[in-house]
């Protein structure tokens, strides 16, 4: 029997869960420090369990078993906590290795994703700049080449309008834009032909054209040999299909500035 | 789990039904108790007593919680039930039940009644005193005396 006789009745009540309030707190405080009373209360619970055994009644319905088995099947058991010093099987490392590999992959993908994002941003920026340049270039070319553009050549006052041509040539790209004004009308089946006069060698054909009703004409990027250095540009009148070499003397001629 | 259920479901269901007097509610408690054991088998300390006794006490506590419409107050891990001998076999239990019933029959009616009100109805000693009109101290003494009388069944 317990040495703490003063708690004997409280222990019995507590074993049945009927101790409340201050009495319960006081007893629980005592139980924490008293192994003898803890043992006594465990035994009193055992005594109470015997009371439970006195009960007889019907067996649970058959469906209860199936219900439990279904519930158990749906709910995997939580594994018991393993002792800390237990040897760790080699294959259990695979989980961690997998997790580590996943982490490395995530970091790699994240980094790669960042690289891609920066690359895309750079390309988008380049594309935007190019788009702007293209729009600007188109505006220039459209204005220069539009049939309905007004082409006004300013000359010294009281000077009658003179035929005039302007060639803009970018040698490194082989790009040429030629604009002409006040050209005289052509005879039938004839056309003007523009020539690039290189530093050495024969003139190179640089486009066949006919002026409009106002005497204006434009030649944009005719096919030219690459890297050709131009000493001068000239215009001759040629057959409508154009000539491989000039067949008449130039009516207009201009050297580079 | 099937084996444990087959062995102990009768006592678990009987206790739940005795407390709740409702087959549906008793079945729910039965389910609940075995699921707790399934989820946390370590809660039962086999070195301290029999599974039958532990399940009986856990079931009674859970059924009282249901009866009183309250959340479980005690973690099942904290419920240690010490009882000898091992009651795993049906024959052991059957012999023991006969002795227990004999012990209960030999008790004064007021003591047996107080014990059963405390255990199966979950009444506190003051609630029992209110109901019977007996002094509080008398109720306490009867409850403890009744439990010790049951313990003597084991040694007798």
Write a compact overview of the structure shown:
The complex is a heterodimer of chains A (257) and B (156). Chain A is an alpha+beta fold and 257 residues long.
What brief labels describe this structure?
heterodimer, A: 257 residues, alpha+beta, Immunoglobulin-like, 4-stranded antiparallel sheet, 5 helices, 7 strands, 42% helix, B: 156 residues, mainly alpha, Rna Polymerase Sigma Factor, Chain: A, Arc Repressor Mutant, subunit A, 7 helices, 71% helix
Q: CATH superfamily name of the largest domain in chain B?
A: RNA polymerase sigma factor, region 2, helix turn helix motif
At the fold tier of CATH, the topology name of the domain at 164-255 in chain A is Immunoglobulin-like
What integer is the average pLDDT of chain B? 87
> Low-confidence parts of chain A lasting 5 or more residues at pLDDT below 50?
80-87
The total number of structural domains of chain B is 2
SSE pattern of chain B, N- to C-terminal: HHHHHHH
Tell me the distance between the termini of chain A: 126 Å
Please give the share of residues in helix of chain A: 40-55%
Q: What does the overall shape of chain A look like?
A: rod-shaped
Main beta-sheet annotation of chain B = none
Provide a descriptive summary of the structure in words.
The complex is a heterodimer of chains A (257) and B (156). Chain A has 257 residues and is α+β, with helices and mostly antiparallel strands. Among the domains of chain A are: 5-53, no CATH class; 164-255, Sandwich (Immunoglobulin-like). In chain A, 42% of the residues lie in helices and 18% in strands. Chain A has five helices and seven strands, in the order αααααβββββββ. Chain A has helices at residues 8-15, 21-33, 35-53, 62-74, 92-145; strands at 164-170, 175-181, 190-198, 204-209, 217-220, 230-239, 252-255. In chain A, the strands form two sheets. Chain A has a four-stranded antiparallel β-sheet with strand order 4-3-6-7, with no helix packed on it. In chain A, a hairpin with a 4-residue loop joins strand 1 (164-170) and strand 2. In chain A, helix 1 (8-15) packs across helix 3 (35-53) and helix 2 packs across helix 3 (35-53). By secondary structure, chain B is mainly α. Chain B folds into two domains: 1-84, Rna Polymerase Sigma Factor, Chain: A, CATH 1.10.1740; 89-156, Arc Repressor Mutant, subunit A (Orthogonal Bundle), CATH 1.10.10. Chain B has seven helices and no strands. Chain B has helices at residues 2-20, 23-39, 51-67, 90-106, 109-120, 125-132, 136-155. In chain B, helix 2 (23-39) crosses helix 3. Chain B is globular, with a radius of gyration of 16 Å. In chain B, 40% of the residues are buried. The chains are: A alpha+beta (257), B mainly alpha (156).
């Amino acid at each position: 029997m317990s040495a703490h006789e003063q708690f004997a009745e409280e222990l019995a009540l507590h074993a049945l869960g009927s101790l409340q309030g201050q009495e319960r707190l006081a007893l629980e405080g005592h139980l924490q420090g008293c192994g003898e009373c803890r043992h006594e209360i465990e035994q009193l619970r055992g005594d109470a369990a015997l009371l439970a055994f006195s009960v007889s009644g019907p067996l649970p319905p058959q469906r209860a078993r199936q219900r439990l088995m279904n519930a158990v099947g749906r709910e995997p058991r939580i594994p018991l906590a393993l002792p800390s010093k237990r040897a760790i099987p080699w294959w259990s490392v695979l989980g961690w290795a997998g997790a580590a590999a996943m982490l490395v992959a995530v970091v790699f993908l994240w980094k790669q994703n960042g690289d891609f994002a920066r690359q895309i941003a750079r390309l988008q920026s380049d594309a935007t700049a190019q788009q702007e340049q293209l729009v600007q270039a188109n505006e220039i070319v459209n204005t220069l080449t539009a049939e309905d553009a007004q082409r006004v050549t300013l000359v010294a006052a009281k000077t009658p309008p003179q035929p005039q041509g302007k060639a803009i040539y970018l040698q490194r790209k082989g790009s040429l834009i030629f604009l002409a004004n006040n050209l005289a009308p052509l005879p039938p089946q004839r056309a003007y032909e523009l020539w690039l006069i290189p530093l050495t060698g024969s003139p190179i054909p640089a486009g066949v054209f006919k002026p409009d009703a106002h005497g204006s004409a434009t030649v944009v990027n005719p096919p030219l040999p690459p890297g050709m250095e131009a000493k001068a540009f000239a215009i001759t009148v040629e057959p409508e299909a154009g000539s491989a070499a000039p067949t008449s003397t130039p009516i207009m001629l201009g050297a580079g500035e | 789990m099937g084996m444990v259920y087959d062995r102990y479901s009768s006592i678990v269901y009987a206790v739940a039904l005795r407390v709740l007097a409702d087959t549906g509610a008793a079945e729910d408690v039965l389910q609940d108790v075995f699921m707790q054991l399934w989820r946390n088998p370590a809660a039962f300390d086999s070195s301290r007593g029999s599974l039958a006794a532990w399940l009986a006490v856990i079931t009674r506590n859970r059924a009282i919680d249901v009866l009183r419409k309250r959340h479980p107050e005690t973690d099942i891990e904290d419920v240690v039930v010490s009882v000898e001998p091992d009651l795993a076999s049906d024959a052991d239990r059957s012999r023991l039940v006969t002795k227990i019933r004999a012990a209960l029959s030999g008790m004064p009616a007021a003591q047996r009644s107080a014990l059963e009100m405390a255990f199966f109805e979950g009444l506190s000693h003051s609630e029992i005193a209110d109901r019977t009109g007996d002094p509080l101290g008398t109720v306490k003494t009867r409850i403890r005396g009744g439990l010790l009388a049951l313990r003597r069944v084991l040694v007798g």
